[in-house]
Amino acid sequence: MSATRLLVLGVVRMRGEAHGYQVRQDLQLWAADRWANVKPGSIYHALRKLAADDLLQEVATQDSDIGPERVVYRITEHGEGEFFFLLHKAISDTETGPAMFNAALPFITTLDRGNLIFLLRNRIQQTAAAAGQTRLLLNQSIAPMEGGQGKPAHVREMFTYWLVTVEAELTWLKDFVTRLEAGEYALADDGADAFGNPPAQPS
C-alpha cells in the first residue's frame, strides 16, 4: 500500500484534472517529500502506473516552456473507488504505517463526519491495544528473567520511548474525535466546497 498512490489520486481528484507538475506543486506545499518520501520521479511514475491500471485517464496534453508536453489526467470511476479504499484503510488501520496515515490526513474532509469518526474510533482501539502491549513490554524489561539476570537496565528506555509515543498519539486521536464531534472542519456532508472534493462540473 503506497502513500504516493493515495496522494496522487487524491490531488488529481481534488483538482478535477491535473498534470504532473501541478500534482508535484501541491505535494511540495504539504512537504510530502519529508514525511512520505514522495520524490518528483515517483510522482510521474505513479501517474503513468495509475493510468495503466485504469485509475486515471489521460484527457489532454499541454505545451510546456521547460520540457516535453504535459499530460493532463482525470480520475476514473475505478480510481474513485481505489482512492476511498486507500483512504479508509489508511485512517482506520494502524498496520498501514505512519506515512499512509499522513497521506490520508489532507483528504479527511472528503468523508462524511460520521464515517470519519467511525474510522478514527477503529484506529483508537488499535492504538490503545498497542499502548497496552507496550506497557507489558516495559514491565517485562524491568522485571528480572527467571533464572537469569534480566535485560540490561537501559533497554527499558526503548520501551519507554515507544510507550510515550503511542500514548501521545492516543491522546491526540481522542481529542481530534471530540473536536470533530463538536463540528470542527467542513466535511463532505457539510457542503460541496469541502476541501479535497472535485470542482463542480459545468452544467
What does it look like?
Helices cover about 60% and strands about 5% of the residues. The chain is mostly helical. It folds into two domains: about 5-110, Arc Repressor Mutant, subunit A, CATH 1.10.10.10; about 110-190. The chain has a three-stranded antiparallel sheet with strand order 1-3-2. Helix 1 (about 5-15) packs across helix 5 and helix 7 (about 115-140) runs antiparallel to helix 8. The longest helix is centred in the middle third of the chain and has 30 residues, at about 115-140. The chain is globular and about 65 Å long. The two termini are about 35 Å apart. About 25% of the residues are buried.
How many beta-strand runs?
Answer: 3
- Classify the secondary structure makeup into a structural class: mainly alpha
Distance between the termini: 37 Å
Tell me the strand order in the biggest sheet: 1-3-2
CA radius of gyration: 21 Å
The CATH H-level homologous superfamily of the largest domain = Winged helix-like DNA-binding domain superfamily/Winged helix DNA-binding domain
Q: Label the CATH architecture of the largest domain.
A: Orthogonal Bundle
Total helices: the number is 8
β-strand percent reads 5-15%
* Biggest β-sheet strands, sense, barrel: 3 strands, antiparallel
CATH topology heading of the largest domain: Arc Repressor Mutant, subunit A
Order of helices and strands: HEHHHEEHHHH
Overall 3D form: globular
What labels describe this entry?
8 helices, 3-stranded antiparallel beta sheet, 203 residues, mainly alpha
